[in-house]
């Protein structure tokens, strides 16, 4: 039987051919997180609209006599997609689908493999589903052939050597067993060796794979994705210990050749050439990308490219139909594949692993193992990816943490050092681990950090630092070193070889290594996880401004500019949203401030300071001549800024008299700008606990006799909020999500617009 006919039989067991709709011809779509949200919502609604009363999907007119078997695969992929989209098995509609799957026998390798995926996803919500997962895994383990491959049917017994087999079926057999292993189902070690032997033996000389040797004499994209994904599955289960030592031979030629083939031919997945089925291939891309950690295939961002394609193909009724499958991959299965790609591909990336010139990848599965453990710990799917120094820093912001590891001295060019600095100053954090007691890396990474942040030395943290207690209470182990700007860690470094423990999955015997990483993630993110592709750093808008306001940072000795790019980010959002340009300068001494009209001076810091008499007088002249002085305790008073706060009160008392700083009422014109009224704000979790039920902004002001505002003071942080990161230790206003400003932005927006309006009055 030729390959197309064989695949047609498989798909007849998965799809509903009735009512198949061609995707509407939609106008070009611009990729955005919001557009993906809307597409997912419509796709889910479509699946619910097509569910049969008994919970199944995908009846096939004229299919095999066993109609239940016909629906196992289609129902499994739909249920799997819904579970991955966060719908609980307790949902009555989904419960009916899972009940259908539990009661319906199946022997299709595709159907059982997909059903195992659904059981594993359901087990994350309720352990009662593990028995169904274990049963399907046993069935698949017992059905692999002596050659390490799968035929169309998996009946729980070893098939003969001449049983009809394919790499497509073998992929789904391996997939079902792999999710079982992830769900703590015991799998014999020999299974993985048998499977790996097949994939290595069947690889073609060019590095790719075909459907099977009997029908394909060339490599193509969907089966090469299957081969690489399956090799990664085997790698995780066989070779963890192979990478325990930094100078071990970590090369796996078949995997390297397969990845090289994919990089060269990646765009074939988006073409009809080579008998490719788009949605089937997209699911393979997502599996390979998440397993390997690579953000790019060659120069292509796999998720953005795939999601953009799907956004353009979705029909008005919310469904997808594969444009290259000759109608065989019907709307239910197509929509399931599309939803799986969109939702699994956008799961939070917490670590970017940096590929640099050196031994950056001694432990290739360290992040894969760690993020699986973190996902269980935080009950949220967390991923990792590999990024390189060739792409712009704007491409690095998928993850809040950039991870560097090595044994030898790391080498970076000045241009690369500038990129690392830019990433951190835009809100990211560097996390480094010395591997194999490597003195070269220990010394070299410290030299790198000295170049990056000469004003913030790398210092050992005390045992009572929140990094040892923010989520897990652990002893002061491992010893952590931090370079802090007084608000947050810019850099966290560990000399203990945590990467070895992650690589070997020693979460039982070396649990502190995993708990320390969990504490780091919690401290940096405050458990606010953003989707892949959502960056807190906005693009520079191409908007013609209608007004310009000068903003100058005041220089002083109390760490006067801890977040140098906070106002750059704020200025981009301000221009985009209000057509107001911000002319930023400083830090400059107070006696160098520009003349008052339409001018804002910002005095922020984290430490004590004192201004010379001449600069004090200049500040007073600045505000009395029309300028507005904005004072903010960077990081808030729960951080290091208590001494700064005391210095501020002393300064203002000296300039304007004691007790002149008063709460600014929400009725103030500053909060009542048309269409930008502020009656309530959002605070960070730490601040909400401190302020109780307070809803309004907590600004204090010094006013002139005529009521004009001279000085505004926020003891709650604005600075970190303007840069847009959520860090646990910050006491202040909410930073918002992604590149949308939160309450910190709204308050500063009104301050700037108020200053501009006052200048015209």
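^ structure tokens above, recovered residues below v
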């Amino acid at each position: 039987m030729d390959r197309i006919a064989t695949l047609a039989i498989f798909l007849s067991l998965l799809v509903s051919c009735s009512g198949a709709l061609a995707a509407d011809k939609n106008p070009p779509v611009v990729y955005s997180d919001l557009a993906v949200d809307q597409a997912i919502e419509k796709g889910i609604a479509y699946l619910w609209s097509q569910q049969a009363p008994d919970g199944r999907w995908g009846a096939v007119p004229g299919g095999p006599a066993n109609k239940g078997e016909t629906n196992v695969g289609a129902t499994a992929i739909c249920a799997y997609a819904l579970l991955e989209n966060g719908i609980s098995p307790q949902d009555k509609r989904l419960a009916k689908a899972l009940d259908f799957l539990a009661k319906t026998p199946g022997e299709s390798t595709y159907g059982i493999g997909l059903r195992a995926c659904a059981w594993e996803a359901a087990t994350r919500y309720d352990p009662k589903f593990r028995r169904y997962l274990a049963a399907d895994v046993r069935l698949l383990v017992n059905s692999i052939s002596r050659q390490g491959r799968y035929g169309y049917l998996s009946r729980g017994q070893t098939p003969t050597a001449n049983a009809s087999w394919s790499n497509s079926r073998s992929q789904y057999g391996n997939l079902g067993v792999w999710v079982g292993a992830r769900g703590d189902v015991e799998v014999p070690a020999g299974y993985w060796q048998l499977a790996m032997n097949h994939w290595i033996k069947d690889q073609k000389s060019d590095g790719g794979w075909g459907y099977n040797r009997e029908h394909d004499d060339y490599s193509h994209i969907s089966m090469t994705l299957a081969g690489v994904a399956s090799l990664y599955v085997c790698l995780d289960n066989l070779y963890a210990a192979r990478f325990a030592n930094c100078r071990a031979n970590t090369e796996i030629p078949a995997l390297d050749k397969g990845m090289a083939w994919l990089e060269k031919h990646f765009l074939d997945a988006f073409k009809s050439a080579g008998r490719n089925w788009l949605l089937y291939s997209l699911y393979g891309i997502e599996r390979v990308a998440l397993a390997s950690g690579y953000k790019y295939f060659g120069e292509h961002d796999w998720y953005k490219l795939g999601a953009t394609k799907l956004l353009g193909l979705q029909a008005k009724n919310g469904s997808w139909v594969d444009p290259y499958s000759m109608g065989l991959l019907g709307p239910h299965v197509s929509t399931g594949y599309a939803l799986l790609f969109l939702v699994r591909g956008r799961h939070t990336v917490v670590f970017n692993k940096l590929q640099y010139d050196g031994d950056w990848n001694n432990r290739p599965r360290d992040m894969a193992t760690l993020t699986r453990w973190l996902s269980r710990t935080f009950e949220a799917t967390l991923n990792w990816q590999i990024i390189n120094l060739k792409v712009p820093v704007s491409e690095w912001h998928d993850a809040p943490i950039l991870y560097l590891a090595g044994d030898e001295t790391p080498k970076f060019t000045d241009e690369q050092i500038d990129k690392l600095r830019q990433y951190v100053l835009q809100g990211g954090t560097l996390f480094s681990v010395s591997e194999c007691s490597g003195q070269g890396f220990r010394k070299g990474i410290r030299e790198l950090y000295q170049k990056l942040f000469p004003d913030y030395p790398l210092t050992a943290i005390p045992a009572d630092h929140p990094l040892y207690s923010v989520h897990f209470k652990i002893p002061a182990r491992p010893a952590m070193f931090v370079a802090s700007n007084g608000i947050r860690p810019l850099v966290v470094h560990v000399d203990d070889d945590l990467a070895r423990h992650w690589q070997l999955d020693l979460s039982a015997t070396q649990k502190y290594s995993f708990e320390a990483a969990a504490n780091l993630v919690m401290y940096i993110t405050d458990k606010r996880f953003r989707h892949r592709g959502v960056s807190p750093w906005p693009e520079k808008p191409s908007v013609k401004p209608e007004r310009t306001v000068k903003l100058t940072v005041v220089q002083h000795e109390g760490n006067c500019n801890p977040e140098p790019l906070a106002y750059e980010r704020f200025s981009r959002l301000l221009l985009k949203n209000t057509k107001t340009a911000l002319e930023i300068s400083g830090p400059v001494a107070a006696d160098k401030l520009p003349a008052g009209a339409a001018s804002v001076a910002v005095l922020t810091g984290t430490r004590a300071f004192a201004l010379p008499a001449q600069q004090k007088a200049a500040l007073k002249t600045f505000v009395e001549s029309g300028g507005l002085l904005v004072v903010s305790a960077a990081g808030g008073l729960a951080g290091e800024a208590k001494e700064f706060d005391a210095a501020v009160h002393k300064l203002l008392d000296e300039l304007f008299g004691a007790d002149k700083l008063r709460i600014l009422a929400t009725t103030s014109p500053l909060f009542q700008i048309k269409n930008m009224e502020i009656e309530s704000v959002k605070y960070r979790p730490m601040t909400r606990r401190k302020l109780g039920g307070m809803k309004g902004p907590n600004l204090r002001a010094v006013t002139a006799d005529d009521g004009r505002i001279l000085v505004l003071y926020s003891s709650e942080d604005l600075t970190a909020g303007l840069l847009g990161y959520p860090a646990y230790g910050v006491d202040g206003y909410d930073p918002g999500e992604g590149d949308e400003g939160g309450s910190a932005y709204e308050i500063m927006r009104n301050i700037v617009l108020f200053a501009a309006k006052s200048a015209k009055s």
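The longest helix spans residues 33-50.
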